[in-house]
Amino acid sequence: MTLSRRNFVMGTTAIALTAPATIGRAQTDNIKFASILDLSGGLDIYGAPMAETTKMAIEDINAAGGLLGREVELTMYDAQSTIQFYTQYATQAAAGDKAHTVHAGITSASREAIRPTLARFKTLYFYNTQYEGGVCDYNNFCTGSTPAQTVAKVVPYAMNKWGKKVYIVAADYNYGQITAQWMQKFVAENGGETLDVEFFPLDVTNFGPTINKIQTAKPDMVISALVGGAHVSFYRQYAAAGMLKEIPIASTTFGVGNEQKLISAEEGNGIIASYGYFEGADNPVNTAFLERLTAKLGADRPVMNELAIRSYEGAMLWAEAVKAAGTADRDPVIEALRSGLTYNGPSGPVTIDAQTNHCSMNVYIGELQDQTWNIVESFENQPPADTQLVCDLVANPNQSTFLFENGLAAAGIE
Amino acid sequence: MDLVVAVLFQLVYGIANLALISLGLAIIFGMMRVINLAHGEFLMLGGYTVVVATNAGVNIWIAMLILAPLVVGIIGVIVERLLIRWLYGRMVDTLLATWGLSLLLIGLVTSIFGASTATTISPPLGIIRLGDYSASGYELFLIGVTIVLFIAVFATLKMTKLGLVARGTMQNPEMSSALGVSTTQVYMVTFGLGAAVTGLAGGLLAPVTGVLPTIGATYIAKAFITVISGGASILAGTAAGSILLGGINGIFAFITGPTIGEVALLVAAIILLRLMPRGITGRFFRKSL
Fold it and tell me: Would the keyword Membrane turn up in this protein's UniProt record (chain A) (predicted)?
């Protein structure tokens, strides 16, 4: 970065402005951790478990003596499934609370609403949700899985099991659109054929015409990237028409909002999905984590899914980085994270990939039986290969972009 | 041939589905000129009634056909007594009040049952085979229920004393009151019946859609568009609106895809209301119920 007069003036002004705040902070001496999630409104099926595990992470950190001898103070904001609250609370967390880190966002739209704000305030940002990939931002760590990690695994697995002809149904917004593109790519790579792709607005509840079309096309399987409460109807109507026994379903979204509990056992049996975590992940950290969670929340606690676990692991990755850096200030913590930091969490080892600020992680394929996911295959240490195609923060750290097409072109997809 | 039958079946089901979710709203709006923005939440409460009842071991048919309308009907009466009756004739105020009610109900249900609800109910009927195609027997049942429901509402309004008094009150409250009818009671019963029909619809849809606190939002827009497009007549209007919009939605969804299907439904409604601002029954079948 060249030092211009404007940069110099802005820099010194910022120091002058933040100096009193630093003194103020020294008095309370807490390290501040802000969380912004949808705890009400349409997205709360995802947000509520994420909030529980975030709270648990901060409790665990404090129970172990806090960080650098200081207590970690959690501030939680409920964005109420409304984008405008994200912007408002992100500004509040960064400028008002002077949070050391903000862990926030469920949909890509919410992330894109606050990412520029947090970059401007130089506030370290974690996005702990599986998404379509493509964020390339020095200040933003994306700990969730991306299509190259999950879609690339579940498509060949399902095709080996069921056959080559695939019918894709997906939600009609950027996650569904982009994921459907990746699905088609992986289907073609594995010698299969995509018969049709259909997109559904998020409030569609009647899937009758689509079920007719699937019956006409006679695929070997259906792959779904449907999202949200209304789309749960698809699985129910599909099973009610007797289709699930004839043409099975694989999905990249079913289960991430614990949808398996919203439908009856026989409506879901045999559905296959792939995530960075299922409760069945076989490691001692996971066993201990689930035991503590049950002890804390009781036997009817929410089922843990990738979003919930990654919220815990995201907080823990940050805590590890603070310990390694010896300070909670942004730049040293980012350096510590990007040094290839690994946290051994319930999902297995999660390692920051310095090229993309995404994570290498274990990926699991699960098959649903009686509302429980049984892990049928697992893959260790999978890199975020899609985002790596287009993003290189090592070569050029001064980036804060969302590459919307997310390497589709680089991967040879129109 | 099988395909034609299967598509026609889905088309009829789509229309019945729309009619089912709209009828309760049409009764309340058509009879009382009250715009009930909590309509979607009444549907949601019907669904929750079925989930809670079946989890407690109640037979699913009793839960859907008796408990859901009963519970939501009672809630409707309570709402009318506490909230709506102070606001008759003030359309914008009822709009705001029922919107607030909708938020309250979502919040209450979320705090009682959580953001997502475990259900174990599945459609209680088997599969219908049509050659290469299959459809859910439960969908056929829903079509049947919708028709029976329309006939029942028609019979109630046309053939019973209650229906006569209700229609009279809606046409001219002062005259009815002068003739010794307790109009407040009529309003209460009508609102309760509208809510009960909505609860029944919500209960019947519980096995085929997700039951979530926020599920009402996905129904409310379509129900309103159907009722407004249909116009003032409760039954003829809802039926005409459902057939037109459901038909267009189903055909376009099958030919192109669900996105265009939804767009076609909305475009059709806009054109229709431009040409017939008072809805279909504002121009045709004006004397009908």
Answer: no
Question: Cβ(B269)–Cβ(B245) under 8 Å?
Answer: yes
Dist CA A51 CA A100 (whole Å): 18
HSE of A391, CA atoms in CB hemisphere, 13 A: 32
Taking the CA of residue A231 and the nearest CA in chain B, the distance in Å comes to 8
* The predicted structure's pLDDT at residue B136: 84
Is it the case that residue A107 has pLDDT exceeding 80?
yes
In terms of phi and psi (left: phi > 0; alpha: psi -120 to 50; beta: otherwise), the region of A36 is beta
Model ipTM value: 0.79
- The residue with tokens 């589905």 is B17
> What average pLDDT does range B250-260 have in this prediction?
87
CB contact under 8 A, A206 and B17: yes
| Among the partner residues A236, A257, A266, nearest to B209 by beta-carbon distance | A236
pLDDT of residue A22: 42
On chain A, the residues whose CB falls within 8 A of the CB of B132 are 215, 218
Compute the average pLDDT of residues B96-115. Answer: 88
Q: Does the structure show a pLDDT above 70 at A71?
A: yes
Shared domain for A312 and A247, answered yes or no, is no
The shortest C-alpha distance from A182 to chain B (Å) reads 20
Of the listed ranges A180-189, A340-349, A396-405, B168-177, the least confidently predicted one is A396-405
Q: What is the mean pLDDT of residues A63-89?
A: 93
Average pLDDT of every residue of chain A:
88
Residue A80, burial from CB neighbour count under 10 angstroms (0-12, 13-18, 19+): middle
Same domain, A232 and A200: yes
- Show which of residues 29-58 on chain A sit within 8 Å of chain B, judged by CB atoms: 40-42, 44-45, 47-48
Flag whether A135 is in a domain: yes
Statement: residue B242 has pLDDT above 50: yes
Assess whether pLDDT exceeds 70 at residue A406: no
Please give the pLDDT value at position A24. 42
User: CA of A302 to nearest chain B CA: how many angstroms apart?
Assistant: 10
Largest CA distance in chain A: 70
Mutate to test the interface with A, among B41, B50, B141, B208 (most CBs of A within 10 A): B208
List all residues of chain A from 300 to 319 with a beta carbon under 8 Å from chain B.
none
User: For residue B105, which phi and psi values (nearest 5 degrees)?
Assistant: -65, -40
CATH number of the domain enclosing A230: 3.40.50.2300
Question: Residue holding tokens 């923005």?
Answer: B37
Paired tokens of A65: 């003596």
Q: Specify if A412 maps to a domain.
A: no
pLDDT score, position B225: 92
> Using a CB-CB distance cutoff of 8 angstroms, which residues of chain A are in contact with residue B118?
261-262
Please count the other Cβ atoms lying within 10 Å of the Cβ belonging to residue A401: 12
| pTM for this entry | 0.82
Are B134 and A241 an interchain contact pair (Cβ–Cβ within 8 Å)?
Answer: yes
Domain, as residue range, for A240: 148-275
CA A151, CA A408: separation in Å to the nearest integer? Answer: 14
Tell the residue number behind the tokens 């939680």, with chain if given.
A76
- Structure tokens belonging to residue A192: 């299969």
- Are A61 and A133 members of one domain? yes
Give the model's confidence band at B89: pLDDT under 50 very low, under 70 low, under 90 confident, else very high: confident
